[in-house]
Fold:
Amino acid sequence: MRSTMQETPLGIPTLLRFASTVYSGSQVHTVTADGLRTASFAEVGARTAQLAHALHDDLGIRGDQRVATFMWNNQEHLEAYFAVPSMGAVLHTLNIRLYPDQVTYIANHAEDKVVLVDGSLIPLLARVLPGFETVEHVVVVGAGDPAPLEAAGKQIHRYEDLLAGKPTTYDWPEFVETDAAAMCYTSGTTGNPKGVVYSHRSIYLHSMQVAMPQSFQLTEANQVLTIVPMFHAMAWGIPYAALMSGASLVMPDRFLQAPALVRAINEAKADFAGAVPTIWADVLNHLDATGEKIPTLQRAVVGGSAVPPALMQAFEERYGMRIIHAWGMTETSPLGCVSQPPAGTEGELAWSYRVTQGRFPAGVQARLAGPDGSIVPNDGEAVGELEVRGPWIAASYYRGEDPERFRDGWLRTGDVGTITPDGFLTLTDREKDVIKSGGEWISSVELENHLMAHPAVAEATVVGVPDPRWQERPLAAVVLREGAGATPEELREYLSGLIPKWQLPERWTFLASVPKTSVGKFDKKEVRRAYAAGELEVTVL
Ligand code: ADP
Structure:
């Protein structure tokens, strides 16, 4: 029997229409050198229509052509987030922090036709633009001298000139909910970056999940500081979820250093934020050093890499801010799971849930594949590679690349860990970062979490390095806090009370800072390379 229900497509034009009328008074604040500039959702809605007219009438965008952004988090980027998919085209967010040859590869692979660029990023785009084979138009947002772009021979426009005088409504076309709305490439820690293509439907359903109480719990009352870049995993879906829930947005633009973030939090009275752990570690150091406070900021979702429990504790105890740990990846839109403890749990028990990567929602099914590929139970004990499926999980990469990452309709995440019967995920590692010592696996994440809880340690990463006897052994790379001292012997002694003896690292090195990837994660590949090249001063105990 067929249902008798309507099949209204789920999609971005619906979110836009809804937010710009029902939540017309909610706001988007963008940080500038002179404080915040603010627009209402109604204004953003009107400018979104103007942008769509400009893209269609002046730049000739038709059908599913790709419109790329090379931008920070700001109001205009949000306008592109809504205009491009709503007019039927595909938004492609370029990661400005990738190596030039990777950015060029991605722009050509996606066949971008237009690039919107922030004025402040012109010099960065100028380095790669000549290699963008399919791009015809560059639109400069805000101030900035476009001269460096001219050599590439593209047509150059100014965003505000294009929008000026355009109608503030647009007759958004009918769309098919499973059609492409936006695309984003994974950073590609191995091989070339892979394209993930989101549909209108996946974004709509994902936004509902993000806003839910079990996830980010967003409402019209919230002021959401979106630090996670809009060029990385769609800023964790926060922009779309904010318009769906009426939450106001605070966009930091290029002002991402800890002092500027703290200023933005206080100026905009942000009560919720999202960013990777390394950003929060910087903010914590800044607060501790200056005595500044962030009284309005009650909650922050933190993910992208494992959140050290010591960081969660420090924010909670010293600044009254609750860190909510979450896991996801570009391929999962990215919300996979969020660690809200079960109702009724308190104290140590609640804490034991909060430090996990989180609980899967109804929309994400999860299972673990053991070393031989067979499925192991979700009993909180058995370890395996996490596989997920659901309506906002990728079923393939753009152009069918890397098909082995998918099997029987499940995405193989490359993450290794356990799942409890009540759906909480604990990751011990990425498959490629697991340390394989004498047939046993050592969790680099666990060692890092312990090290980062030591008072003298600012940052620590642990990687597997070749060992003639054990195949691999852990190398601990430690960054000490300013003015603090600790020897490898002391740190090893401290760890010996926390982990089994056979897991204790023999090799130690001290760094000025841990190298980071384009999205602020510890770059373990680089640490392994530096070790192999003999560039590190290593103490062997
Ligand atoms: P990449 O890091 O490859 O650029 P993503 O940003 O999509 O791409 O990263 C997804 C990966 O980040 C996950 O597969 C996982 O390894 C890691 N990750 C994300 N959240 C967490 C978390 N809370 N704890 C541990 N690892 C995480």
